[in-house]
Amino acid sequence: MQNSCWLWLRCTTLNNVGIRLGFKDLGALAYQDSVLLVSNVENTLIPKLKYLESIGFSRDEAVGMVLRCPALFTFSVENNFMPKFEYFSEEIKGKLEELKEFPQYFAFSLENRIKPRHIEVIQSGIKMALPTMLKSTDEEFRELLTQGAG
């Protein structure tokens, strides 16, 4: 009984904060990433939205990104968002619109996926969309580089 009361309280708290932040279906969000049920809203969830706003997204755009990729709420601002955004803006020279359309960028490993593939794309001299570069399997990526398209 205590566990169900705790869960109800956490869901209610998350729902109240979600409404305040502009989320319409917190149940679906929590279902996709259940770690949100045990997250500290004020110290964990809100700072992630604030960071996305600080790099140029509106509140609605930041909320939209999290709805497309709820895992964004599970990433560290300092260890994930900041270094990946820095690489995106300084090396990839991408536009915010790309991240808004593909927030899953933040879910890929900077050292093991983003940097190596970006370097290969640059060395090949071809243009490749961010989702194509990161979501393709290793085999598909090699084929795209060989074909010179993407």
If you had to describe this structure to a student in words, what would you say it looks like?
With 150 residues, this protein is mainly α. The chain has a domain at 2-76. Helix content is 69%, strand content 0%. It is built from nine helices and no strands. The protein has helices at 2-21, 26-32, 41-54, 59-68, 77-92, 96-101, 110-124, 130-135, 138-147. The longest helix has 20 residues, at 2-21. Mean pLDDT is 81; it is low at 1-10 and 32-38. Keywords: Transcription, Transcription regulation, Transcription termination, Transit peptide. GO terms for molecular function: nucleic acid binding. It holds the Pfam family mTERF.
Low-confidence stretches: 1-10, 32-38
Shape: elongated
**How large is the count of helical segments?**
9
Q: Strand tally, please?
A: 0
The mean pLDDT is: 81
Rg from C-alpha positions? 18 Å
* Helix-strand topology string: HHHHHHHHH
Structural class of the helices, strands and pairings?
A: mainly alpha
Report the sheet-strand fraction: under 5%
The main β sheet shows up as:
none
Helix content: 55-70%
The N- and C-terminal alpha carbons lie at a distance of 54 Å
Family: Belongs to the mTERF family.
InterPro entries: MTERF (IPR003690), MTERF_sf (IPR038538)
Keywords: Transcription, Transcription regulation, Transcription termination, Transit peptide
Pfam family, one: mTERF
